Automatic annotation (TrEMBL):
<dbReference type="Pfam" id="PF01476">
    <property type="entry name" value="LysM"/>
</dbReference>
<feature type="domain" description="LysM">
    <location>
        <begin position="30"/>
        <end position="78"/>
    </location>
</feature>
<dbReference type="InterPro" id="IPR036779">
    <property type="entry name" value="LysM_dom_sf"/>
</dbReference>
<protein>
    <submittedName>
        <fullName>LysM domain-containing protein</fullName>
    </submittedName>
</protein>
<dbReference type="InterPro" id="IPR052196">
    <property type="entry name" value="Bact_Kbp"/>
</dbReference>
<dbReference type="InterPro" id="IPR018392">
    <property type="entry name" value="LysM"/>
</dbReference>
Amino acid sequence: MLAVSVALGTASAWAQAPSWDRGLRDEAPERYTVARGDTLWDIAGRFLRHPWQWPDVWRVNPQIEDPHLIYPGDTIVLYDCDGRPCLGLERGQNVVRLSPEVRRIPPREAIAPIPLETIRHFLRDHRVVDDPESLEELAYVVAGDDRRIVSGAGDRLYARGELASGARYGVYRRGERYVDEATGEVLGLELESIGEVRRERQEADIVVLEVTAASREIRDDDIVLPLESRELERELLPRPPDSEIDGRILAVPGGVRFAGRLQVVTLDRGRRDGLAPGHVLAVEQRGEQVADPRTGEALRLPGSEAGLAMVFRVYDKLSYALIMRATRSLEVGDRVHNPASLVGRAGR
């Protein structure tokens, strides 16, 4: 049976709050039956005003050391626990309080806390080089077999540069160059995956490669790099950043300007700013630009909260995030910052 890894326990995190409505949604159901395909974020969102805070709910409860596995068909029950909300789990006819007990099932059967497949698909096709100038020192395609201009799976390629044996390599094409509009600083260069190759042998500075997979034709001057790890952080749990973040949506990969729920965006903040995988940021839609009726001066109206983004891959100066909630269309240039928090450490 498919299972969902969910960390909903007794809501003792709300013990610090004066009343239920500080943590619970007004329309929180008394009972919810878990459905196939649910994620932790989805389930928490039915009960909590801020679904990304579910790890804090169980982390502050000394009786709960690990997340619980809840299966499709199980029912989560909301009840009164000495004046504060508690969540129980109904299996069959009995209601039991969630405990530290963990039901062990094969990891492949557990549903992820967020839509990880969307992220994996994106990471397969995109990566960032922090210093674009370093590309000049990397291996690059110089020719295809039989003087072909383009190559595909099963073909042989020739690249110039040093490539170690045993490693797995990807072939990439230069994408968007990200620049800080305010300072002119280069934040990174996005690379688009073209295919994968296997090193056959090296002769002087020419390496012979076999194309093992190709999503597009490989061309001369495409870059050859060791494949980036596509494993997602096991601790990819939603939480507020530990430091103050004030940044912008730099781009929506794919060449579009607008983004909605479950779309990936590029942020102009990264590791050096304190971001890490799992950090949740509020997205503030930029206010409209208007002209002062008296002076003609261009004015930017105050923005409004429009969604939540969860960071999943971080580079030195920028990062990728998944839009988890969008109450309106989000756009390049919209602000990202620490979310308001009832339980968390940052954003108070």
